[in-house]
Design brief:
There is one protein chain. 28% of the residues lie in helices and 43% in strands. With 125 residues, the chain is of the alpha+beta class. It has a single domain, classed as Nuclear Transport Factor 2, Chain: A (Roll), CATH 3.10.450. It has a 6-stranded mixed sheet with strand order 2-1-6-5-4-3. The longest helix has 18 residues. The radius of gyration is 14 Å and the shape is globular. It starts with a helix and ends with a helix. InterPro entries: NTF2-like_dom_sf. One of its GO terms (molecular function) is isomerase activity. Keywords: Isomerase.
């Protein structure tokens, strides 16, 4: 299978499950690398289980998500995800997140997120 098509299928499986908050983990590699949430720290969080724990917390902050745009080139992809966030302080915000992916050996292998971390963190207080 061409890498671009494989990458696209992995992402479609991931985002379908991610939006439903279930059944997305199967496409994540065991040595997954995640960067996001703190752009001052570029050291990745490594491991599938560590990423699952991050998503358990993050999933509490969004009601819905949808993919606005996906560009796939071989084993890399750029996705714009749109999220309806709900914060403990009652504030609701709709925002876009830039998500850069790689895949390796038939699994999603890394993700780097870019988003407005200041607004996000201020609303968690």
């Amino acid at each position: 299978m061409e890498n671009s098509e494989e990458t696209k299928q992995l992402l479609e499986t991931y985002y379908k499950g991610f939006a439903e908050k279930a059944n997305w983990e199967s496409v994540i590699s065991d040595d997954f690398q995640y960067r996001g949430g703190d752009m001052t720290n570029t050291t990745p969080v490594v491991g599938k289980q560590a990423y699952i724990e991050i998503i358990k917390r993050f999933s509490q902050r969004f009601e819905a998500m949808r993919v606005l745009q996906m560009i796939v080139e071989q084993d890399k992809a750029a996705v714009i995800g749109n999220y309806d966030f709900v914060f403990p302080n009652g504030i609701k915000i709709n925002g876009n997140v830039s998500e850069l992916w790689t895949q390796k050996d038939g699994k999603l292998n890394s993700l780097t997120l870019y988003f407005d971390t200041l607004t996000f963190m201020n609303n968690l207080k």
